[in-house]
Every structure is written in C-alpha cells, then in structure tokens.
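Re: export button greyed out
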Amino acid sequence: MTGKKKWRKSKDPLFRGDAKDSVCVPNPEADDSIVRHIMYFEGPGRETPYLSTSEEYELAEEFSNGSVWKTFVKVAKKESVLHISRTELLSLMKGNGKGKAKWPNAFEVMQARRYVEQWGEHLLDFRNVGDPSEVTKIIFSKS
Amino acid sequence: MKLHSCQNCWFNGLQYGALGLAVGYCARHKKILNAPDGTTCGLHLRKDLTLIRAIEVSEIHKEKYPIEIVCRINDGLNYDSDISDNQKDMELLKKDSVADTVTDYGELGSTIESLAQLKAMPGARAELAMLSLARGYANNCVLRDGKWTSGVHLYWWSRLRLAYIPKIEVTDLRSIGAIQLSRQIELTLWSLVMLRLTFIEDIITYARQQSDPLGEVPSLTEQAALSLDNFNLRNLSKWIKSKAIPQLDAHLSRSRYVELANVLHSERENGDAQPVIPADLRGSAPLRPANR
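Workaround output, generated via the alternate export path:
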C-alpha cells in the first residue's frame, strides 16, 4: 500500500511560512499554553514561546507572508530549542489535555488536535532560549 | 489555513477549512472572496468556536482590522484582486447551486427562505452554507429583537439531521493537507458535524440567556469532546443518538417546537418586538493570558 511518505525526525525538514525577510521572534516568557497557541485566539502579534512548523512545504506556504523557511530538529536542538512533535501533540490533546496542552475547554482542545493532524504541525519550543532573535536567525534558512 | 481568515468566518457560507469551492463569498460585504485564506475584516466571527468564544475573539480581532473592507491579514490593506462583485464573475459563481443561493442571501425575499433552500439541497457544501449563515442569522435576530426562538426552525432542522453522517465528494474539497485523502474527508466530515452541534449550542446559549428550559442543556460540544477521544464518525454519531438527542428532546420536544413556532408566527404577524439582551460572557476560559 502506498501513501504519503512518513516524516522522519532525523532527516526531514520542518517548514514555516512567515515574513519575506525574517521569521517571527517568539517570546520565551509568554504564556505557554499549547492550545492557546494553536487556536490562535489573539491573532497576529500575539505573544507566544512557540513557533509552529509543518511537515509539508505546501501547508507552510498557506501561512506564509512572503517566504517559506525551513529548519531541522537537530539544528534547533543545538540552540536549546525543544521539538514537540506532531505525535506528541496529538497524544497530549485529548479531553481537557495534558501537560502544557491542559486547557479548560475540551472542545477547543479537540479542535486544536484536529488542526495539528490536518496541518502536520510540530512546535518549536523557545522557553529555554536566551536570545530568541539570534536563535531564529541561526536555525532557519529560506526554503 | 489561517484561522482568522475569511474561510473560517460565519458570513462565508462557501468554505470551511478544506471543504468548499475555490472562492468564497462574503454575505456581509457582498463580495466574491478570491483569496479567502489570506483576507479578513473586523466583522469576522470564527466558525470553529462556540458562540461566546467566537464573540470574545472577534472583540480582539476588530481592534486590528477595519469592519468596512475586506483586507489582507498581513498588512490590513484592501487589494482589488482579492475580491470581486463583477457581473461576469457572479454569473460564473451562480452556476453552482449552493453559491447561487448563498449569493442571493439577504438580497431576495427573506433570509430564512434562502436558508430553507439550502436545507433542502443535498450535499455537505449546502449544509455548510446553511449552518454557517444560520449562525449569523440567529445572532442577528437575537440582537435585533431579543427572541431566541427566531432560530427555532433552524434549530429543529439541524436537530433532525444531527446524527446523520453527511457525504463529502472529492470535488467538495479545496485541499487535502498533510494527510491521506480518506483521512482528510473523515476530519472534514467531523468538523461539519461539530458545526451542527456548535449551531445547536448557539441556540441553547440564547435560550439560556432568556431563561428558557432549553438553556439547561449543558454544552454539547464540551460533552462530545470529553466523551470521544478520536475522530471516529460512527462513534460520534452513536454518541449524538444516545447522549445528545435525548438531552435536547427532553427540553424541546416536537410538540413544544410546534407550539413555539406558532407563537413566533403570531408575534411576527402582530409585529411584536423584544428588547436586546446582551450576551453573557461569563464562564469561559480566559482568552488573554495574565501578565507574567
């Protein structure tokens, strides 16, 4: 049986649609609810310690403001950026969610889970990063 | 797909996520939406959220975007190429029967007639259009005359098909995302059935604000999310039949529906109007994080 190729953490890139000249700079000190981040309640300009990425270039392109950027998990890890995989996100988002995906509204957890699956979403977690502005420049390159 | 873009707005009945036509149509601005994943406006109300949350989010959204124009999310500017009301484009769009009804919404006769036409049409896209515009219709009615029963027919139509699993053809999809086609169809169907529940919940919320017994039904979207931990449609349908419908029917039976519909009809004949009742925004998770 053939189908979509499985994304491999050790080899495959993660794509991010963002501005033409730079990637949005996360705020390590911002509220770290994963559901709030995925559901994008506060819209553009919101403060978040995460950057969303996708396994698929085409999906990242849908979120682009000019460019699609890419990085690799091992490159991000070298700069203390943690990787929260799609599989991990899906396992965290059931019922009222677990860990940083815990959220008072289970329906919103469920919607966020659906988006993670449909978009092939992975998060890059900048909570341990000292200089997020510099680190985004180091880990991302134009795709 | 940006969640605050036109594809995810109540007033665009032609699209929701992966479901829909290549172009959208805004029933507020009366424009074809050529770039619905990249545009928005200050009137935006999200389809994927329950009523109270959608209103909360819209309050934040309207601080950033103008209400009078369809603009780009990126820069807040209006681009002619993003929209159209050109006659030739409208004629082409109207060749699609769902789009024909959606573009007539609010233009010819009563809006409820357009919604009744959509209800009678087969297919997931027609149901999407009905549910999406119905959310705006019910909200508008409540804001104008204060009666939750303005949406009682729409409630009843949705209640009758609540457990039915709709059909989506491959031609109904705009994209397949990061997953297999069959899985995309399953998740898209799930989102449509949840949109039914969300609409039903809108009406329950209006009823609750006006102390009607229907308002005693606890959040169905919340119950569904807590009861089902995967996106299996058959399980969702079974849950709706066994758990959701009995709760709804206990508070609004067919005989009560007929009674309410008759009262509504006679009030309309007599031109009675009720005062506007503000939405009760208490009880939801805080949207803006506390300062850290």
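Chain A has a mean pLDDT of 95. The button fix ships in the next patch.
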